[in-house]
Write a structure and sequence with these properties.
mainly alpha, Arc Repressor Mutant, subunit A, 2 domains, two-stranded antiparallel sheet, 10 helices
Length: about 220
Amino acid sequence: MLPQNRATDELVDSETYPLGEQSEQSDAASGLALVALSHTPVEHRLYVAMLTARKEVPDSTFTARHLQNLTGIRSLSTVRRGLEGLLVKRSIDRNGRHNVRGKREQAHAYHVYSPHEVMARRKEAGGTVLTPYPQHSTGANGAHIFDRAIERVAENSTLSRREAQVALCCVEGLTNAEIGKRLSVSEQTVKFHLRHIFIKFGVKRRAELISRLLM
């Protein structure tokens, strides 16, 4: 993952992009992989913890302190920043305010959405949510081909989050200039990421990369 502030933004483990080996799990796995690519490491660590807890208690809601205990993230401000990021990306929503440990003090509580629900919420939001990923992840012709690319990217644990984004933009057929505009970076930065992506996939040019991701 992208090494941001290592003091607080700890790297996400190999379960960051859990792609199940069972065929019936592939749709859900691809959905989680796509959502994961839009999260920072801290955001996704929080998101996975919330999803896991929701499997046990479907109507679970979470406070920042609760998530601090679930994830082991020591900084409460880091947890709160992660939650704000998840709110913007529509991966979670606020669910009122709850008493903290039975005291008069109250804190925001949060509800988590499944990957499928997240993508539906983002699609409904339209242009109000900036995301570097295509809107045709489900239901469109050829969507299964792009899902295959997502899996290939997600399986490569050496890629940073930004490298994963650039790789998927290549699959969409975007030029370096178009990728830079979409990700709000310079063309030189795109080229820098592409060099690392080529090395990590063992290819020498963009066409080879696209072929590798779609095969």
